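REVIEWER CHECKLIST
Item 1: Sequence provided? yes
Item 2: Single chain? yes
Item 3: Sequence as submitted:
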Amino acid sequence: MIAETRRKYPHADILFDPQFYVVSRTDEPAAVGFLGEWNYLRSYGLGQLEREKNVRAILKTVLNSCRALELTAIIAPNVIISRSLDSREAVVAKTFLRETKRVYAEMGDERPVYASLAIGREALQDRREFEEFLNDITMIESPPDGVYLLVAGRSPEARTEIFHADVLANWMLLNLSLAVNGMKVVNGYSDMVTPFLGAAGGFAGATGWWSNLRSFSLSRFFPERGGGRQPVPRYCSKILLNRILFNEKELVATRFPKIVNGLPHDADYDPEPDRIQEVLQSWEALHSLNGDMLAGDVDENLKNCRRSLSEARKLYDAIAAAGFRWLDLKSHDDHLEPLEIGVAQFMDRAGLT
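Item 4: Structure as written out by the authors:
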């Protein structure tokens, strides 16, 4: 797959997430799946990971496995900090961050190396702990070239866990602080939050093929319950900063045509797209949204973000005033308030006006 991608898109950045954080779930065989084919993935106790020599040995094993692939940059492993940034998990995570570049430098590989940093959303809600942790990781003597940053919820379907003002503000602050300290930040599973993270200095964001890959959770490694119906296709509307049901899009657009993006994949909604067309439309909209909102420095980008939020709010209010009722809860405007507050908190704490 990597070889084919390099051939079709020779200028693309190709990264590989080693998913080492799943070691906390290796006692559940179904959670590991094909990951078990990688020699570095086995169960580790937290006590083992608190020893620096063990961390260095793990880094060497994982990095060598990834270096064998034709990647443009290498992502190092790490554990997930689930509930507190003042915890044993956080100590282990900082050891992985501190040792990533040192171990990698011994290998003589000229490609950039990204340290992983995976933080549970509960751990991002204590401001004091967050600021102390942020100070620690930005003072590392041998910092990596970049950071692969994940924010984890309990469920990939519960977007309210990620669309939380404190979580969003701290996620943006992580991007700004790491970028200011010379590290490129690649945000995994950032999806619709990507432009806001980019405005704060993030280098890249990511989203997946299906809805369970749009936000990060270890629960996605457990077997899914079968027998459910396929979800109704959704349309990613740039101005609403949201995905709405395809039939909602048809109904609302007759009165409010601004919800339609005016991009090539809109033509696939005639009226219902297939699953692949839905994903391509979503990616196209996100790519265009990033281009619209990330056109200058941090100040200009944040102006664009706030303008987009204001436009979304006005349009949602106009649609509500017209008497339209959304058919699905995820189509509502619940995501706007935490984004608005989160951006304001970020700007205040970062000293931006």
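Item 5: Key structural point noted by reviewer: The chain has two domains: 2-221, 234-350.
Item 6: Recommendation: ____
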